[in-house]
Structures are given as structure tokens and as C-alpha cells.
């Protein structure tokens, strides 16, 4: 499958909504946490596969602002998994020249997770092979609200004028300011929703939905999604004729 990928036409930014851990565990008669643990293993494999392919940006929806509403035990288990995962995997990321990044409301995370994240981000900040971004306590509407507030305050304080507000300005106020737009958005587990993820950034992204539950998602499934992406014609609002000129 991997050999069918055209490496000259790789998506530059893939975003993934990792869904289905709970259902996967339930199918096996186990607790939801077991699904998350297995999902963490999938995450590791997909990060490695992405780096090996040469895709520069991979952004993963690991924890949404809405996920705080889950039972406390599950939230705690996810935070503990994240903490342990960072401790365990950061060396592997660094050795592979992979940069770790995070977006979202970091202040709302437990202090130990914040510290571990900060340490990992600093350690890998000069790595160049690819950037892995974990969306944690992330919500796209919240991201847009803080951008609007910042821009409004800049106008009010005469730092910029109303006419300075354009796409570039809005991009600059988002967590993703240094990243290209998303080319390919993948969601696992058969749900056809965006769930408040990167609403601005996916304006022209190709959407790919698969029924595979996240713990069962393998690099082969990722290659399939990329091949599918490469078979589509991205017109960005233009006609096919205009594109072939
Ligand atoms: C969605 O499955 C998955 C999550 C809410 C968490 C994603 C976490 C991991 C992949 C493990 C690594 C952990 C971190 C925090 C990096 P779901 O629980 O919504 O599944 P369901 O829809 O079947 O209930």
C-alpha cells in the first residue's frame, strides 16, 4: 500500500480526530480506559508512520474542552496516560528529530501534565523532521473567541485599523499560527462530525471518514487515507478546466 503513495504530492498537514476508544473497549467487555491505553499505542505508531513518510505536520485531537464533562475517573485516567506517555515517548520523538507541540487551554491541565508538556516542547523545539501537535483542552470556537477578542482590543487601542483585519491577521491569532492549513482531516469510528476541531483551519481540507475504531487504526489505514486524498481533485473553488491550464 505504502508504495502506491505519490511522495511528491503528500498532504502537508494531516489532522486526526481519534475516535472510538470507548466502543473498542466495550466490544471487548473491558473498561473504557483500556481503550484509551490501546489508543495511545496507535498514536505512537501513527506518529512514526507520518514521520517516515515525510509529512511535516500532524495534529491530533487528544482531549476537547467538552471532554472535561466525562466522568472524573475517565478524565483522570486520560491525564495520567498523557503524563506517562510523555515521559515514556519523548526520547523516541527527540531521537527521531520530531518536534512536539500542543494547542488548547494549557492552563486548565493538571500542573504535572503542564510541566511535562513544557519540558517536552522545549526539548524538541529545534527538531525539523515533522511537528506533532496535540490538541489538549482544545475547542475551535474558544480559539476563535480569543482571536476575536485580541483583534478587537488591537483595533480599540489603535494598534491596527479595521481594514487590517484579513485572513492573515486572523491566522496570526490562532494557536496554529505557524502551521499550514489542514489538507486532510481523518476521523475514525464511523462518526461524520467535526466536533469543534480546527473549524477555521479545515476550510479547504479533504475530509476522510473511516469506520475503523482508533485502537484498530494502523499505518496501512493511514496510507489508504493518503492514497484516497491523492485521488481527489482539489479545486479550491475553481473549475476543473481552470486547474488543468
Ligand atoms: C476518543 O474515543 C478518544 C479520546 C477522547 C482520547 C484520545 C486519547 C488517546 C488516543 C490516548 C492518548 C491519550 C492522550 C490524552 C494523548 P472515545 O472515548 O470518544 O470513544 P467512544 O466514542 O467509542 O466512546
From TrEMBL:
Binding site for Mg(2+): 19, 206
Broadest EC class assigned to this enzyme: transferase
Domain of life: Bacteria
BP GO terms, sorted: polyprenol biosynthetic process
Cofactor(s) it depends on: Mg(2+)
Catalytic residues in the record: 19, 67
Signal peptide (from-to): none
Listed GO CC annotations: cytosol
InterPro entries listed in its UniProt record: UPP_synth-like, UPP_synth-like_CS, UPP_synth-like_sf
Keywords (A to Z) from UniProt: Magnesium, Metal-binding, Transferase
Cofactor: how bound: Binds 2 magnesium ions per subunit.
Pfam families cross-referenced by the UniProt entry: Prenyltransf
Gene Ontology molecular function: any one: ditrans,polycis-undecaprenyl-diphosphate synthase [(2E,6E)-farnesyl-diphosphate specific] activity
Binding site for substrate: 20-24, 32, 36, 64-66, 68, 70, 187, 193-195
Protein EC: 2.5.1.-
Entry function: Catalyzes the condensation of isopentenyl diphosphate (IPP) with allylic pyrophosphates generating different type of terpenoids.
Subunit and interaction comment: Homodimer.
Family: Belongs to the UPP synthase family.
The name this protein goes by in its record: Isoprenyl transferase
Organism: Capnocytophaga catalasegens
Taxonomic lineage from the root: Bacteria, Pseudomonadati, Bacteroidota, Flavobacteriia, Flavobacteriales
